[in-house]
Amino acid sequence: MSEVTIKRALLSVSDKSGLVDLGKSLAARGVELLSTGGTAKALRDAGLTVKDVSEHTGFPEMMDGRVKTLHPTIHGGLLAVRDNPEHAAAMAEHSIGAIDLVVVNLYPFEATVAKGAERDEVIENIDIGGPSMVRSAAKNHEYVTIVTDPADYADLLAELESTNGATSLAFRRLMAARAFAATATYDSMISQWFAFADQQQMFPETLAVIGKRVEELRYGENPHQKAALYVPRGPFGKGIAQAEQIQGKELSYNNYNDADAAFELAAEFRGQAPAVVIVKHANPCGVAQASNLLDAWQGALACDDVSAFGGIVATNVPLDGPTANAICEIFTEVVIAPAADDAAKEAFARKKNLRLLLTGDLPDPRRGGLMVKPITGGLLVQSRDNGVVSLDDLKVVTKRQPTEQELKDCLFAWTVARHVKSNAIVYAKDGVTAGIGAGQMNRRDSSRIAAMKAAEAAEKFGWAQSRTMGSAVASDAFFPFADGLLAAVEAGATCVIQPGGSIRDEDVIAAADEAGLAMVFTGMRHFRH
What we know:
By secondary structure, the chain is of the alpha/beta class. The two termini are 54 Å apart. Helix 12 runs parallel beside helix 14, helix 17 (443-461) runs parallel beside helix 18 (482-491) and helix 18 (482-491) runs parallel beside helix 19 (505-515). Strands 10-15-14-13-11-12 form a six-stranded mixed β-sheet, with helices on both faces. A six-stranded mixed β-sheet has the order 18-23-22-21-19-20. It has 19 helices and 23 strands. The protein folds into three domains: 4-198, Methylglyoxal synthase-like domain (Rossmann fold), CATH 3.40.50.1380; 241-358, AICAR transformylase, duplication domain (Cytidine Deaminase, domain 2); 391-521, Cytidine Deaminase, domain 2 (3-Layer(aba) Sandwich), CATH 3.40.140.
């Protein structure tokens, strides 16, 4: 059947926003209202006539409200196939009245967990009757309309207005699809809580992953691909997906991917001196820290101003006017910062296509969590790379000891290298990247490419020498051969930071000693693919 006139509605909601207006609109159409507990009280307080579910079923609520709608009179009224003679006979024999509309939203399980409630309270906020009614109504959507989200009340009322108090099959199908998504999401959050919080499992036997679509994107990595942005349901860290877009055209798939790479690296400098990160194709092409943001921008840009064209810029502190004006001197796709002052916003406003994203804060770079990567036929899941190396973790393996400044430069280069695609080589000096080599099939080529970029910058800006001279160089994984290290020597690096662990470590250490380098091992690598 196509249109079903709404004669009886069952309303039982945790979120009561919009409830009274909905109830009044239904009552004005002569719809009988069934309800429970607090929902019934809210409707009665608004002057509406409401029939308690217990009166409808002839059975009282019991067990602190755990059992109230789990009754054949309710589910028979929801599940009956109206034009099936046997179903109709059963309804008549047992005095089961049809329920045409169900408006239900579920106990606030997510909010209860988020506020840090004790286990008993969390368990009590696992809804049983609500999901049962939702699923019954959604399964029987040929005859029953189910609404689970207050945001859909307006659409429901518009549907009733356009069809003279009825709903169309197309509308009921749409609401049923949303209803099953709602119960799937709800069960997923409960599953995650039991697995991660209650049972302390990192990799549960079944991983329930649910996301809500925020928007469909213009296309994916390439124009022939489709794409959309989803955000997870349940606890998660806020990031680019939750940023406020102040201006500019909509973000593309690649914009989101690159912006996230820039934002994650900027977060490494949370609470530190002003830092600027420039990213192109998900790889840093310039990073710098300074006493002020403008100097940090100029230092980062000088590392590779060619790659910076059309790039993504992220900062760890609020943007100011002078820095914004300087950024606007080159074509920039996206700028991300915790905040921006009025002068910065005014400067960016002159670049209509530039996207300005304000995040309000930076995430904790050491936070936990899981990362999921699809492969053909499966998912790879791993914990976030939140490992950290401090000065106390460094092991000097060469005859020459590094200076205090060299150690500082090593840690800065190491911080950047962990965000560069492997094989990664990063030269840095005085809090500024001098050259970055990313994603090469061997480490020697990454060393040479990074040095080449630094040499090009020196020539372009008229410096007396490349900034790799006297720099520290970081390698995200061990040098398997001495050739990669010797390429760094050729570039003028004086100190090396690397994980160590190669069967040829002694050869590499000997080469460093012969060249007069200082070298430290971290014992931790940071591959990024």
